Amino acid sequence: MGEEDKLEDTEAAVDGKSKKALKKAAKDAEKAAKKEAKKSTGQAEGDKEEVDVSAGKYGTFGLLQSKADDKNRNAIFTHIKDLCPNIKDQIVLVRGRMHTSRAKGKQCFMVLRQQQFTVQCLVNVSDTISKQMVKFASTINKETIIDVIGKVSSVPKEIEACSQKLVEIHIQEIWVVSESKSQLPLLIEDAARPVKDDDQEGLNIKVNQDTRLDNRILDLRTPANQAIFRLEAGVCRLFRDILTNKGFVEIHTPKIISAASEGGANVFTVSYFKSSAYLAQSPQLYKQMAIAADFDKVFTVGAVFRAEDSNTHRHLTEFVGLDLEMAFKYHYHEVLDTIGNTFTEMFIGLRDKYKTEIE
Questions:
Q1: Which of 58, 179, 182, 75 is nearest to 121 (CA)?
Q2: d(Cα 143, Cα 190) in Å, to the nearest integer?
């Protein structure tokens, strides 16, 4: 009797296990059927999600080899400084560096920099822009050179962080031309940030001078340094143009000379084959020679070297000198008037032609 009860319990356990297995199998079959039905009825939608609609509109350029049959050879680029509401809705091609980027949901905001000019760019998921393209844009390293094709659009509110405050670019294509390293010794936005004694934001971020000089190429990309060099070029250009219009002749004087040209400044001695020579600390002698040679009015723009051991910024051992020399007819006030008018015209030229750099 006891053996029969034991046998019945065993059979009941087997039947119970079978019921659980069958129940689980039924659930799995139901899930598989639903999955298959969804796959069969929504095949078009599934294919649409898997296909990259932006294929061929983003990626990395190969090595630029200046081939004769390059289709991009005649491409017309638009400078960032020329982006304004006047060209709203136009499709432009812009090349610049990735300044900053910020991905948010299905869109990515980027700031593209070209020299000291910046513009905001936007790429977001749409019927023509895929998630893959947005992801690709968000992973581009800072300072990477990229080509962007997009439509110029006006913005409802000024973009304070960019030089082009009234427009942005809605990206249609984006290509990496030259990729930078992911880790840079300094960030351009940090190097460009003005140093303030009372930092209310509490960031207190600054780049040391040693770091700047060790990585001078990166440091020169900041808007301030870009503006300084352009202003320097502007001063020399205005100096030349103004004096040329006044009848002056530009001359180029020697910089390696056999004897000190002035007695008021120390000179650098250099080895000149089997003898010694000196770096010119002034073009004065040669200007006077030109006047005596009936040039009447001359000027020169060139390097000046002075061996003055000084730690102040007003006594440089090397600098670019702007010198003029002229003969006057009756009174030395003729020279003073010429110098005064030259300075006045130079300042007016800087104000009118280099307003962006000064600001």
A1: 58
A2: 13
Looking up tokens 């630029």 gives 64
Q: pTM of the prediction?
A: 0.76
Please say whether the beta carbons of 130 and 173 come within 8 A: no
- Short-list 345, 344, 339, CA closest to 322: 339
Distant-in-sequence, close-in-space partners of 29: CB < 8 Å, separation ≥ 6: none
Token readout for 44 is 């078009």
pLDDT digits (tens, 9 = 90+) for 155-212: 999 999 899 999 999 999 999 999 999 899 998 888 888 766 665 555 567 888 899 9
Domains and CATH numbers, the chain: 58-64+73-178 (2.40.50.140), 224-357 (3.30.930.10)
Q: Is 263 helix (H, G, I), strand (E, B) or coil?
A: coil
What is the 8-class DSSP label of residue 157? S
**CA-angle at 247, arms to 243 and 250, nearest 5°:** 60
From 105, 104, 174, 119, select the one nearest 144 (Cα to Cα): 174
The residues of the chain scoring below 50 in pLDDT are: 6-7, 10, 12-14, 44, 46-48
